[in-house]
Amino acid sequence: GEQVEQLPSSLIVQEGASVLINCSYTDSASVYFPWYKQEPGKRLQFIIDIRSNMERKQNQRLTLLFDKKTKHLSLHITATQPGDSAIYFCSASGDSGYNKLTFGKGTVLLVSP
Amino acid sequence: GPKVLQIPSHQIIDMGQMVTLNCDPVSNHLYFYWYKQILGQQMEFLVNFYNGKVMEKSKLFKDQFSVERPDGSYFTLKIQPTALEDSAVYFCASSLDQGAVAETLYFGSGTRLTVL
Predict the structure, then answer these.
(1) On chain B, which terminus has fewer CB atoms closer than 10 Å, C or N?
(2) What pLDDT is stored for residue B98 in this prediction?
(3) Is the sign of the CA dihedral B22, B89, B104, B51 positive or negative?
(4) Cα A47 from Cα A107, distance rounded (Å)
(5) Is B33 on the interface with A (CB under 8 A)?
(6) Three-state SS for B17?
(7) Chain A residues lying within 8 Å of B110, measured CB to CB
(8) How close A97 gets to chain B, by Cα (Å)?
């Protein structure tokens, strides 16, 4: 079945820095890639997604790049703030229509003031 | 934004007992999901549910597991009997539309189940 890997597993940056979180998947049938964020003690929160017919999507300080050929995604966060500190999860879903997401293990981001 | 509520947040039970995890999905959502996360591992899909039926389940969804949503009330995950390996955080999620592949899932905060 599908496998999703994320790197790095953790990141510590100073406020204002940019960060890059990488994600790779194995199943070429995956077509939808939502990303979630989980702040300490809170629920998973959807932040951005991309479909396999797109190469790039931006939402304010978040930019998501997708390379179908290499089965690779990267989430770029600019001008980080302490409030961005959270675990970021990449996920992948096939075309089954039922939102069966395969998640990565997450990237812990800590932004220090 | 829309919120999915899970009750209880923690549950401790003895192995072999039955447990029911409750989920109050977003009110107008039609699709419901359970995911399981063992400590230190990634969250894994268990099952999805629509119109009173299980649509798809993973190999983690053992015969001891069942789901239902009687009369539009809580969406529940029942484990009977429980085993030690069922200890995990269980996340409920819901989505609005017809399970279209690009539907956003809204997650609850999870129920931490500890089986002794």
Answers:
(1) N
(2) 58
(3) negative
(4) 14
(5) yes
(6) coil
(7) 43
(8) 4
CB-based contact B109:B6 (threshold 8 Å): yes
With cut-offs at 50, 70 and 90, classify the pLDDT of residue B40: confident
With an 8 Å Cβ cutoff, is B105 touching chain A? yes
- Of all residues in chain A, the percent with pLDDT exceeding 90 is 87
Going from the C-alpha of A47 to that of each of A56, A88, B48, B90, the distances in angstroms are 15, 9, 22, 21
Q: The tokens of A66 are what?
A: 């997708």
Asked whether the predicted pLDDT for residue B100 surpasses 70, the reply is no
Asked if B95 contacts B31 with a C-beta cutoff of 8 angstroms, the reply is: yes
Q: Tell me how far the alpha carbon of residue B27 is from its chain's centroid.
A: 16
Give the gap in angstroms from C-alpha A75 to the nearest C-alpha of chain B: 18
Interchain contact, A99 vs B108, CB within 8 Å: no
Closest-CA distance, B48 to chain A, in angstroms, reads: 7
CB contact under 8 A, B43 and A93: no
